[in-house]
Amino acid sequence: MTKEQALAEVAKRIAACEQCKFYPGQNPVPGEGNPDAEILFVGEAPGKKENETGRPFVGAAGQFLAEMLESIGLTREDVFIANTLKYRPPENRDPEPAEIAYQLPFLKKQIAIIQPKLICFLGRHAMSALLPNLGKTISQVHGELLDVGNQAYLPLYHPAAALYNGGMRSTLLADFARIPEYMDQIKKAN
């Protein structure tokens, strides 16, 4: 089975997961991008636009994510973008721990298929879902390359933070600018 077929199978299982949906008729947002991506971006949960389209990061935060990718010479097609939750929570509220625990196996399966060299967290919920025992907040480790269990991680603030707080924009762009340097370090280490 190819990576594309394996990811399509995961997407099929996400679409069939009735317990994952918060209300009937919701669109699943399994994730999208290059199945051979070296970099995987993980957000917290789909928003309104994502629920409408079934695609991750297509609203205003997604436009800023595309801009940040472009700033380091990448496009959405070069990376894989997913969320911890595959369905939009009611009123766009924060994901609850039980919801994350229930849907996290889908993301872990996607990671196992793609085998990215670097996983970038877009926000604290993604970081705490995949590194629950880190013991640090995203404000303490944003922009720092973490090596946990032979996997490289880069905690970043969520792009939406820059939409509400102009000062965050320069912080996010500066953290993003380090990705090529980090990728060189990771490749040299392997």
Mean pLDDT: 95
By CATH, the architecture is named 3-Layer(aba) Sandwich
What does the main sheet amount to? 6 strands, mixed
**Outline, from the CA principal axes?**
globular
Note the total helix count: 9
Q: Please, what is the CATH homologous superfamily? A: Uracil-DNA glycosylase-like domain
Q: Give the % helix.
A: 40-55%
The share of residues in extended strands comes to 5-15%
The succession of helices and strands, N to C, reads HEEHHEHEHHEEHHH
| CATH class annotation | Alpha Beta
What oligomeric arrangement do these chains adopt? single chain
Main-sheet strand order equals 1-3-2-4-6-5
CATH third-level topology: Uracil-DNA Glycosylase, subunit E
Whole-number radius of gyration? 16 Å
Return the domain count.
Answer: 1
Number of DSSP-assigned strands: 6
Low-confidence stretches: none
Question: How far is the N terminus from the C terminus?
Answer: 26 Å
Q: Decide which structural class fits the backbone.
A: alpha/beta
Textual characterization of the structure:
This protein is an alpha/beta fold. The chain has one domain (3-189): Uracil-DNA Glycosylase, subunit E. The protein has nine helices and six strands. A six-stranded mixed beta sheet has the order 1-3-2-4-6-5, sandwiched between helices. Strand 5 and strand 6 form a beta hairpin. Helix 1 (3-16) packs antiparallel against helix 4 (97-114). The mean pLDDT is 95.
